[in-house]
């Protein structure tokens, strides 16, 4: 099924000048960049994005990190895009990520793990609406 997903290249990877390298990996796997922008996210946006984690110990530090510097936000499309992106990203903890995944290559720790990708088609729809600010269904 052709679908879209949200990817955020996090401040650690943007600082390390890895935007091009990371985008190349997605493109090499057939995903298409539909929309993108760079920004320093507002705190309220990150709080909403990570709402599911608000009771976790790492949440305050995660919000600080994600609002500390620029991120690169992308809408990627393709066959099974949500799952394909998750495979290419690798495990949340870079120490457990398969070789050649983005987190294996560019992640430093479970927090500084280079990229975020939506975890399901439903989450992708909600996250795309949050970050791209329009009804994503209407576009497709
Ligand atoms: P992400 O895919 O963006 O989704 C939630 C984020 O929380 C995750 O990547 C990590 O950056 C962060 N995270 C998850 N578990 C931990 C942890 N144990 N300590 C710190 N950060 C974490």
From TrEMBL:
PROSITE patterns: NDPK_LIKE. GO terms for biological process: CTP biosynthetic process; GTP biosynthetic process; UTP biosynthetic process. Its cofactor is Mg(2+). The active site is at residue 116. Residues 2-140 form the Nucleoside diphosphate kinase-like domain. ATP binds at residues 10, 58, 86, 92, 103, 113. One of its GO terms (molecular function) is nucleoside diphosphate kinase activity. The keyword Kinase applies. Transmembrane segments: none annotated. InterPro entries: NDK-like_dom (IPR034907), NDK-like_dom_sf (IPR036850), Nucleoside_diP_kinase (IPR001564). It is an enzyme of class 2 (transferase). It comes from the Bacteria. Its EC number is 2.7.4.6. Keywords: Kinase, Nucleotide metabolism, Transferase. PANTHER family: NUCLEOSIDE DIPHOSPHATE KINASE. Belongs to the NDK family. This is nucleoside-diphosphate kinase.
């Amino acid at each position: 099924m052709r679908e879209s997903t949200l990817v955020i290249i996090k401040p650690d990877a943007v600082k390390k000048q890895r935007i091009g390298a990371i985008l190349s990996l997605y493109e090499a796997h057939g995903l298409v960049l539909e929309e993108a922008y760079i920004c320093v996210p507002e705190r309220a946006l990150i709080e909403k994005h990570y709402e599911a984690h608000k009771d976790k110990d790492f949440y305050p530090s995660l919000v600080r990190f994600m609002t500390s510097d620029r991120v690169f936000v992308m809408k990627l499309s393709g066959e099974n895009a949500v799952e394909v992106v998750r495979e290419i990203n690798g495990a949340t903890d870079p120490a457990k990520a398969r070789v050649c995944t983005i987190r294996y290559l560019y992640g430093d720790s479970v927090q500084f793990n280079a990229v975020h990708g939506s975890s399901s088609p439903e989450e992708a729809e909600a996250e795309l609406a949050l970050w791209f600010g329009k009804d994503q269904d209407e576009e497709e």
